[in-house]
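Predict the holo structure. Ligand: zinc ion.
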Amino acid sequence: MKKTLSSLFVLFLILAVFAACRGDEPALSSSPGDVSPMGSEPRTEPLPDHATVEYGEPDLIADNIGPLWAYVRYPQAGDATDYLIARWADEMYQDAFDEIQALRETDASAEGEINIQFNSYLVDDRYASVLERGVFIASGMERPRHIVRAFNIDTKSGLMLDNANILDPAKQARALALLREKILEAYPGADRVVDGLDDMDDSWLTHIAIGHEGIIVLPAPDADRPPGYEELTVTLPYDELGSAFWLGEEQTTTATSVLSVSAAAPFVPLWDDVDPTLPMVALTFDDGPSQHTDQILDLLETHGGRATFFVIGNLVERRQDTVRRAFDMGCEILGHSWDHRNLTKLTRQEIETGILDTRDVIESITGPGPQLYRPPYGAVSETLKEVSRDLGFALVLWSVDPRDWQTRNADLIVPAIMNNAKDRAIILSHDLYGPTADAMTRVIPELRARGYQLVTVSELLYYADIDPEAGHVYYKGN
Ligand code: ZN
């Protein structure tokens, strides 16, 4: 315990230096009456006096009761960058939380603190930079771990800028030489105590921001640096960078969309067993994965074919094996929102989160996939299409609806599909229901007997020469 407190004392010394005085007592000595749990009204403390906030309004993740004391500040600008920045902040908090939980398995008194602050700049009314920095410390750690992250955004195009969009990679040596010079100016003698200053590589330029006077550089934190050098900060003036700084000239060709973190690559079929001249349909199953999904996979395996599963994000984790099996069979796994809320009734931010969190949990199993999803209830609004377009997602509905969710009767579901199935149809069903899975014991062999190839939605669109366009709605493959 003594060690913990002395470590925390170091933490607060460092906090005092870089985050300025917050005018309150350290969280660890707060009295019990001072606490408020996560989720209730957090203490709203002002940002440090010297914080620059030119882009976004400060938002906060706070925990005043521990065992992880948290104070994580990040900006929300009401635009497409919000999700990405808020998710980063949440990840930092969650990682710290998990680390403390792990420590407490062996030491019930383990505790810690995470404190992150930010500065944000808006240059030329167009380029926004967010510089997040902070510390995490936990029981048993000799020194705090430094946290640094820079976000650079071209607010005009809505693109997130890579470092190569800001500094010419071909002139990196010049930028590094200037960086070394500025570090030595600001921290005389740094070359004697900081490892690697005489042999700098591009990792020194990982965290850069577009400032008003020049590029602000936070060389990546290094645990082995001596106190006072953990977090070097220098500015490389634009006039001294010369042509090594090329923002506004070459950058937009490679900059990635703020939200399409994994930009959609053109779809390429993995299987060469489809004959585009023969009839095909896409069977699609919504609202799973469920206990009935494997029954449908068995049928596809037996009779030959693939399907598309539009899954509910919050159901994926507990049926990872089913999802993995479907994917390995060549089926397509796409999102159907996180919790089946009607997306047309949600805010833009909630829509983004619903689509992207679902995409993330699917991709944790399948890797990056097509940027397609199906909104719950097939409900679509102009706002939903707009947000989808901004996110880089196309929407998939259907051309055949057997209303299996309503009848829940295999004897009615089978003819409802078979009487309406035609070449290039997208057929809606729900693997959530036993009767639907039972209906498939007849539907799948019958479709095969009639000569239909059972393909995924992406394959159906591909063989129809349709390259799905973000924000557009697709009903069938012709
Ligand atoms: Zn649904």
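Residues 81-104 form the longest helix (24 residues). The mean pLDDT is 84.
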